[in-house]
Write the C-alpha cells for this entry.
Amino acid sequence: MQQGTNLPKVGSYNRAVVLEAIQASGGISRVQIAAVTGLTAQTVSVIVRRLLEEGLVVEDGSAPSSGGKPRTILRVDARAGYAVGVHFDPQELSCVLADLAGNPVARLHQPLREQIGPDTVIRRMARAARRILREAGVPDGKVLGVGLACPGPLDADGVMVSPPRLPGWDRVPIKGLLQEYTRFPVTVDNDATAAAIGERWAGIARSAPGFAYLYLGTGIGGGLILDNQVYRGSSLNAAEFGHITVEPEGPECYCGNRGCVEAVCCPSAIEAALGNGADHAAICAAAASGEPEARRVIERVAQRLADAAVSVVNMLDIELLVLGGPALREVGEIYRQVIARAVAERPLARRLHGVRVETSPIAADAAAIGAASLVFHATYAPRLGALLSG
C-alpha cells in the first residue's frame, strides 16, 4: 500500500493514495486508512469527505472499534464510473465493460481473420465498444474512457512499431484512431502490462507492493509493478519476459536470439513440439486429462517457463509472481506447480523470503479487464511522477 505525505501541494496525490486504499481493501475505516497511508486523521477526513461528495466512495456499514462508537466502513461506489477494455490479439478481439471496482459487467468476443487490415480492425474495436455500452445500458456520461491492450512495441503516442506477429501494422497510430472512432479518451498499453494493472486493480495483487506478471497468449510477455508503481522502462516496453533465453541452442526467435521463452513456449511452439496436427487447445485438454505425450510437452514447457521465472525472481527480488493469459487454458495448474517449486528451491534469496506463485482468477480475460483497468489506473492511481513534477 502506498504511503501518503503531509507536505503541502500534494493534495491530488494524497487523494489518489486514499482512494487506492479504499479500493484495494474492499472496505476500510478512516482510522485504518490513516494507519496504512501514513496520513494524519485530519487529512484523511478531509479527503474522504470530498470523495463522498464526488460520489466515488460510499459509507457502507460499520465495524466494531476498540473503544467508542463503531467505525464507518468506506467502499468505492462501483457504479460511479465505467470503462471499456479492448484486447486486440492477432486471433481475437475481446471487449469487457468494467465498473469502477474492476468487476466485469459485460463481455464480448469476436474472432479475427489475419488478412483484415488495420483500419478495419480498429473500426471493429470501436463498434464493439459502442455495442457493449448500448447492450449494458450505460450512458456516455458514465464512461471514463476506453482502455486498449494490444501487442507491442508501442511508442509514447500509442503508435505500434513493427509488432512481430502483425505484418502490415508498423507505424499504425492505434490509440489515435480508436479515440477518433469511439469519441472517448483512449489509454493504451501492451497486453501484458495491461493484465498486470488489471491484477493490481481488481485481482489477487491489490495490496501487493510489487509483483511480476507472466502473460501467456499468442505470444509471451510480462508486466511489472515495483514499489507500487507500474514499471515500463525508458521506451515503455519493459518486462519482455518472453525473450529471456532458456535454450541457448534452441530454435531461432523472431527477435534475433535463439531459444527464447516465446520461441519454445508459445502455443505455436507447443503445437510444433507435439507434431501430430493437434491445436493448442486440444493439446492442453489432453495434457490435463493425463495423455502421456501431451503431458510431456506441457511439462517441458513448464520447466522452461520456470527457468525464466527464477531469473526474474533473482533479478527483481519480488515475493509474488502471477500467471495469466488465455494460453493457460486447462494447464495453468501444471505451470503453477512447476514454477512454484522452482522459485522455492533455486533463487539466491530463497532462505530470506518465499515467493508466491498464483494463477490469475481472471486469466482468460486478463488483458481485456486489464485494459479497462488502464483507464481507472490512469485516472485515479497515485503516481510518483505527478508528485515529483513541478
The longest strand covers residues 82-89. The radius of gyration is 22 Å. Residues 159 and 173 are 4 Å apart (CA to CA). The first helix runs from residue 11 to 25.
